[in-house]
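Milestone 3.1: sequence recovery, worked example.
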């Protein structure tokens, strides 16, 4: 009963904490304003709409969701011209992932990457060394509530720019809008080619040729989230941006996706050394800074502690150690035999000894004892290595005793010796 009460209390506390969290952070709505960039998320900053849009355009049989590292599942030489697509706040690729992706594009395929943190391992291979900037640094950004975006190609450029305004529960929230610095562009034919800009001067969408394929790099993955895709203007922008890809199969990467802050810490800096920004606040510090989240965190810790305190108590009484069972069969046989002997019932004692003898034969030699004929004597002689004459003598003695109403003690002793001789010498 105590255990049931405890679990009931724990469930109630967790439900109350979740309710407080949802009311405080989402205004009672069933979604979160966090940028999760998840394919199955229908929240404002999920990717359900663009995910289904690409899947419909590529057809189901030509759309592949990469559920493992791309080094294991992305083909470097697909049978037809294909596309790799990644949309997320941050991307982390190890050296094997980078090599796989580079081979994929080098062989004539396209890669579309929309992220705020481009992996240094990848950019160090793509960025041309002939430009004014001799090495790849990071994307630049400026802060504002909203931004206007447009394309540079005349067929895609709109008279009225596309408007993207960051929205959240706080009306005064500003956002980091990323773009490429001017120094990254030069006359190198293998360098960056600007395809789109924000606020008329800052390039946020570029193309770079690699081998016989192309990389398409976009610095604002927020543009492709559900909040903007449900609007006709945002959908038109996404279709134009993704329209640079070929009409072939699509490989959607969901395993390289990490949070922006995590990606900045995990990716290498411009000197190739791991970045370790210890001054950046941890996710737990943000949780503790928000009262609803802090209450939910402390409630979780408290219920977990109480659960373990109850679980460490013994829930069953000590099981006593019982003595092992003793085999009293021989003692029982001796007692019955002594009883028959004291009563001078020698014939009954012979019959009991014969039953035990036949049981012994069945158990050890697997011979049926229903008919004690010549075949029985032959089989038992072969298996026990006892002469057939001795076995036949036991059977003859038994038959003679069985037909006699009473027998003398001497006959009982003689039959007993025959049986014991068999037991001692059989194999």
């Amino acid at each position: 009963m105590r255990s049931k009460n405890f679990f009931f209390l724990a469930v109630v506390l967790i439900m109350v904490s979740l309710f407080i969290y949802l009311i405080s952070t989402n205004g009672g709505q069933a979604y979160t304003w966090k940028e999760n960039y998840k394919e199955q998320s229908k929240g404002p900053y999920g990717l359900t709409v663009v995910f289904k849009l690409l899947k419909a355009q590529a057809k189901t049989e030509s759309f592949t969701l990469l559920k493992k590292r791309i080094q294991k599942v992305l083909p470097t030489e697909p049978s037809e011209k294909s596309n790799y697509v990644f949309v997320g706040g941050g991307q982390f690729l190890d050296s094997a992932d980078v090599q796989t992706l580079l081979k994929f594009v080098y062989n004539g395929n396209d890669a579309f990457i929309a992220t705020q943190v481009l992996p240094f391992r990848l950019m160090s291979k793509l960025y041309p060394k002939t430009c004014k900037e001799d090495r790849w640094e990071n994307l630049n950004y400026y802060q504002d509530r909203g931004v206007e975006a447009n394309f540079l190609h005349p067929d895609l450029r709109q008279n009225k720019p596309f408007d993207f305004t960051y929205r959240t529960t706080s009306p005064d929230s500003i956002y980091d809008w990323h773009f490429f610095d001017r120094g990254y562009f030069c006359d190198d034919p293998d360098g960056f080619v600007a395809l789109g800009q924000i606020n008329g001067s800052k390039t946020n969408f570029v193309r770079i040729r690699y081998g016989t394929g192309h990389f398409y790099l976009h610095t604002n993955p927020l543009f492709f989230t559900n909040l903007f895709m449900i609007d006709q203007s945002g959908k038109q922008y996404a279709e134009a941006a993704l329209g640079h890809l070929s009409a072939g199969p699509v490989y959607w990467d969901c395993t390289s996706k990490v949070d922006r802050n995590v990606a900045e810490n995990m990716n290498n800096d411009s000197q190739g050394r791991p970045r370790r920004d210890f001054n950046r606040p941890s996710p737990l510090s943000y949780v503790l800074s928000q009262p609803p989240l802090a209450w939910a965190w402390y409630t979780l810790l408290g219920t977990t502690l109480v659960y373990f305190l109850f679980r460490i108590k013994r829930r069953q009484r000590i099981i006593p150690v019982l003595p092992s069972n003793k085999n009293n069969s021989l003692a029982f046989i001796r007692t019955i035999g002594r009883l028959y002997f004291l009563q001078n019932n020698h014939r009954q004692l012979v019959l009991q000894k014969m039953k035990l003898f036949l049981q012994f034969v069945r158990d050890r030699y697997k011979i049926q004892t229903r008919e004690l004929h010549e075949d029985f004597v032959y089989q038992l002689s072969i298996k026990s290595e006892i002469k057939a004459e001795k076995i036949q003598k036991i059977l003859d003695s038994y038959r003679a005793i069985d037909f006699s109403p009473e027998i003398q003690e001497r006959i009982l002793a003689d039959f007993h010796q025959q049986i014991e001789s068999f037991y001692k010498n059989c194999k």
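The longest strand covers residues 202-210. The two ends are 63 Å apart (CA to CA).
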